[in-house]
Amino acid sequence: MNIHTYEKLWLVAAMLLIVGFIATIAYGSVGLGIAMVSDQEETVNPSNLGDDERFSDPGVEQVGENEYEVTVIAQTFMFQPDPIEVPANSTVTFYVTSFDVTHSFSVPGTNINTMVLPGEVSKMTVEFDEPKEYGIVCSEYCGPGHHTMEGQLHVVPEDEFDMTDLSVEADDEVAIGDTATVNATVENGMLEDLETTVTLEIDGETREQDISVGGDETAETTFTLDSTDPGEGEHDWTVTVDGYEESGTVTVVDELEDETDDSTDESAGGDADE
Ligand code: CUA
C-alpha cells in the first residue's frame, strides 16, 4: 500500500500532538506538585468537631523552632479562627476541615488553595518569609453568603509574635477586714520558656510579680489585698502581662450579705453605699 508523503507527515504530526497532550496532562498533574485533597489524613466527624482532638480548639500551635500547625474550621460563612496570626520566617502546616458543606480555603498571593470537605482534612504546608497581611477567601460556592465568606491571615514580624494568654479571676466582693485575691493565669503557647512580669494596678498602686512559664504551660500568680487599707467602696483593678490586659472591680463592703437573707430589697445592685 502506498501512502502519500503528505498523509504520512500529517499522521506523524497528529501522533506527536497526542503524545504532547498526554505529556502536558501528566506534567500538570504530577510535576507541579498540585495535590488533590489527600485521603491519607484521618477523617473527622463533622457533626462532632467539638470533641475532636485537633478541631475542638482550632488555632495556632508551635511544633518546632520555626514550625507551626494551624487547625482551621470552615463553615457557612466564616473561618475559625479569624484572624489567624503566624510569625514571619516560619513553616506553617494548615489542617482545614468543614463543619457543614463544601468550601475552599484559598489565600491569594500564596500557593494555598484547597477544597474543604466535611469529614475530610485538607493539609498544606507553606513557608512565610516576610510579614504580610493576607486575605482568606472561599472560592467554592457554598450558599447565599458565599461571597461574604472571608478571613484574615496575618504574618507578623517574629519579635511581635507571641502566644501568651492571660485570664484573671478575682473576688467581686469582700467584707472589710477580709483578704481579696486577684488570681492571674498566664498561658505560654510557645515552646520556649517565657520570662515576664505580671503587673497589678489597684487604686493607683502598682504591684509586680516576675514569673517564668515553661513552654506550652501555664503559671498562676495570686495577689492578695488587705481590704482594710483601701477601705469600703469599689476598687478598680487592672492586670497586665506583655500587652495583654484584664480589668475588673472588687467591692469592699461593711458586711457580706447573706445569700439566704431576703429581708432587704437593696441587695440586687450590690451597692456599698450606706
Ligand atoms: Cu464557603 Cu463559599
Tell me what you see in this structure:
The protein has one helix at 5-31; strands spanning 60-64, 67-75, 78-80, 84-87, 90-98, 103-107, 112-116, 122-128, 132-137, 150-156, 164-170, 173-175, 179-188, 194-202, 205-213, 217-226, 233-241, 244-253. With 274 residues, the chain is mainly beta. It folds into two domains: 35-160, Immunoglobulin-like (Sandwich); 164-257, Immunoglobulin-like. It is elongated and about 115 Å long. The structure holds dinuclear copper ion. The site of dinuclear copper ion has 8 residues, from loops.
Tell me which oligomeric state these chains represent: single chain
**Mean pLDDT level:** 87
| CA radius of gyration | 29 Å
The ordered H/E elements are HEEEEEEEEEEEEEEEEEE
* CATH-defined topology of the largest domain: Immunoglobulin-like
Shape type: elongated
Count of spatially separate domains: 2
Helix run count? 1
Uncertain regions: pLDDT < 50 for 5+ in a row?
261-274
Percentage of residues in helical conformation: under 10%
Strand content: over 45%
CATH homologous superfamily grouping of the largest domain: Cupredoxins -  blue copper proteins
Structural class: mainly beta
Give the number of DSSP strands: 18
CATH class category label of the largest domain: Mainly Beta
Largest sheet: 5 strands, mixed
**Unique ligands:** dinuclear copper ion
Give the termini separation.
Answer: 119 Å
Under the CATH scheme, the architecture of the largest domain is: Sandwich
